[in-house]
């Protein structure tokens, strides 16, 4: 399976390492070997190597050095040309999120599908803003569009629902989807100020420099949109997700008001009600009986409301670039298995 | 897909109803229709109808009445003949557990595989006592042996690991696998006596008449054996699972000793250590930080230790014959999808 990537940062590096580490298992268990035929990044240019380099070469030699002959590729603004020119089975869209419109990732994915490439992305933007259109295009072309790693770092959600919850109707969900907010609230409940807590979140790599999107619920709203549109057939835009009483000031106020025995968390919830789907993000003072109250600040969780298995909760222990990379591997294996089915 | 069943009780009835309810979805989404070609039960005899009756007929008319022509089948002791004579794609092994040796279910499954039938079972016995042999026979015959509903009532565990955790090594697990014990402990912590709690567990249908297997950890040991052998490649027998300080007397004693803020649960744990796998069941006084401490008595939970996603926890909300039946449907869909792959 030949991979081309747009965007190559922490996740891309973790993916190259994981594919190298798991090469034997992927080959023996799934008859799968991977090669990289090209990469394009916004800041460092790109390369195309039609004959491909191995994950091991990519992982150990770093980017863009290496032994295989490559063409240098012009930087930025040439994504569509790169996608068309780079021979690949799968395009990995690993650029960072543009939270306002999901671009240019939507264009990258569209170009890849037109060029006959399957697509795997961990970029929330295109799935939150254009899932139904992109999925329709992929279906029309007989190609796969997969995005396990867009919500909770590669935790099996979309793959699990698709393969292990057949004929199941999902009527809602509830969860903790933003680590930064919940890590900060955790430290605040231990007596830290919001500023100190934010600094700590940045230090351990949970938070980016700009945490507005986290604290204001925008990150959670984007994830809720993806879950609602993919799992419940909704047609929400991120702006449709109600963000209720969020932000730094609200966090301070609610923490001061918090009653003994309660835990303050940023909670996402979604319900299908009389044909329409409503979703919101808010601060909740969780009771001790609530399992979500007992997760540490960095832990995410998702409860799916189903008509077959009741409320099904999944809680990953770890989250980070390695887990995001793992979700991409799960998507790649899933594509390979569907290809086997077709041929 | 033609189904024959050995054993037809609460789970069989729930399965017939679920297949009838989900018939449209199973047909449109998976191109799957089901018919029942026969049933054999220990107490009520059996029938074979080569042309099959629909799930709707089976669910609405009950067993063994119905319009389709059927042969009456001799009761008990004719399982192998029934399996061979009844034309079917899948044999459902739904008899109740014999905890000592897994028989006669192992013989049923072996006969079905020799007769060229795929097998789906919710019976813990054969998987706990003979997983590796039965799986090897199934593989040799090119047939599927599936058993999602043997552990936590149809919660996606085996299907999830198989389809959504590729190339993942599972090095251990921990969880709550016996509802009766944990429901009883829940009521005891609220001040009830063990006897009253047991009676309540029977009344709500969590416990059977004989609760020795639950309180003594035998039920949990059987499930731990299945998880260890299937997910970790171990070769445990249920007797190899250490059952430490269990039973009614131990429950009373530990409850009296329990410190404030702790919760007493029957916990199962398994670790792979230097090539060998060790598993045990015991009463644990869980700290408040432990998510398992905050589950209600009837809730099960399983945490898988993985090398790709860290500790992954799954908690189903509901458990009962409907969920067990759902796990069987998930297994049937999975078999159908693999068949598509082959043809």
Describe the structure.
2 copies of one chain form a homodimer. By secondary structure, chain A is an alpha/beta fold. Chain A has helices at 10-21, 23-30, 55-61, 79-85, 105-114, 124-141, 158-164, 179-189, 194-203, 212-215, 218-232, 248-257, 321-342, and strands at residues 2-6, 35-41, 45-54, 71-73, 90-93, 118-121, 145-146, 170-176, 242-244, 263-273, 276-286, 301-306, 311-316. Chain A has a 7-stranded mixed β-sheet with strand order 4-3-2-1-5-6-7, with helices on both faces. In chain A, strands 9-11-10-8-12-13 form a 6-stranded mixed β-sheet. In chain A, strand 12 (301-306) and strand 13 (311-316) form a beta hairpin. The radius of gyration of chain A is 21 Å and the shape is globular. The model of chain A has no long low-confidence stretch (mean pLDDT 91). Chains A and B meet through helix 2, helix 7, strand 13 and helix 13 of A and helix 2, helix 7, strand 13 and helix 13 of B.
Distance, first to last CA of chain A: 15 Å
Biggest sheet of chain A, in brief?
A: 7 strands, mixed
Spatially, the strands of the biggest sheet of chain A line up as 4-3-2-1-5-6-7
Q: Which chain pair shows the most residues in contact?
A: A-B, 47 and 48 residues
Q: Strand tally of chain A, please?
A: 13
Oligomeric state of this protein:
homodimer
Secondary-structure element order of chain A, N to C: EHHEEHEHEHEHEHEHHHHEHEEEEH
Low-confidence stretches of chain A: none
Helical content of chain A (DSSP H or I, runs of 4+): 40-55%
**Global structural class of chain A:** alpha/beta
Overall geometry of chain A comes to globular
Round the mean pLDDT of chain A to the nearest integer and report it.
91
What is the CA-atom radius of gyration of chain A, in angstroms?
Answer: 21 Å
Strand-residue fraction of chain A?
15-25%
Counted by DSSP, the helix tally of chain A is 13
